[in-house]
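Hi support team,

I've been running sequence recovery on a batch of backbones for a student project. Most finish fine, but this one hangs at about 90% for roughly twenty minutes before it completes. I'm not sure whether the input is malformed or the queue is just slow. I've pasted the structure tokens below so you can try to reproduce it. Let me know if you need the job ID as well.

Thanks,
M.K.
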């Protein structure tokens, strides 16, 4: 599966997600189509599976960083990952694949926020995830010179007061 995920990323960088086929992926990964279909229904399913690895990394981030609300513990590891994956972001930004990735990643963030913010209202969970997504996109497109730690610090300074003062779920 690692070979398929690596091939997917390489091909997205070269051609864009929309232009690649399952045959392109299996050829690049040097695996048979039957192997691909034993694990994935289509290239979107492979993409989603690749993002589940990101979920695992973010879930493993410690939720007890001093001075950091547990619901935002994922932010710095996500920013560091995004810094490493800038070319992939650039290759998908503004495309259907970028929207698909954004939707899937927003769901991951919402799950992490919800799990680490007991009693949070779903609107608040989605608002924080959306604010993080907007911050991430702004950083990658408008202020790439900022270090991930600086973006994390600034984002948390804006959002943590709202987390402390948010009403519980209705």
């Amino acid at each position: 599966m690692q070979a398929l995920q690596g091939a997917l990323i390489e091909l997205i960088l070269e051609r864009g997600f929309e232009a690649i086929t399952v045959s392109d992926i299996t050829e690049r990964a040097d695996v048979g189509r039957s192997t691909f279909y034993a694990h994935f229904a289509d290239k979107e399913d492979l993409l989603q599976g690749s993002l589940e690895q990101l979920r695992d990394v973010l879930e493993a981030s410690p939720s007890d960083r001093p001075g950091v609300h547990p619901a935002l513990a994922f932010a710095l590891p996500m920013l560091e990952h995004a810094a490493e994956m800038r070319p992939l972001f650039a290759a998908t930004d503004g495309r259907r694949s970028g929207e698909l990735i954004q939707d899937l990643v927003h769901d991951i963030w919402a799950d992490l926020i919800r799990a680490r913010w007991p009693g949070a209202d779903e609107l608040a969970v989605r608002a924080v995830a959306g604010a993080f997504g907007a911050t991430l996109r702004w950083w990658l497109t408008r202020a790439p010179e900022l270090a991930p730690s600086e973006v994390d610090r600034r984002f948390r300074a804006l959002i943590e007061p709202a987390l402390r003062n948010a009403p519980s779920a209705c």
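--
Follow-up from support: It reproduced on our side and the slowdown came from queue contention, not your input. The CA atoms of residues 106 and 129 lie 6 Å apart. No action needed from you.
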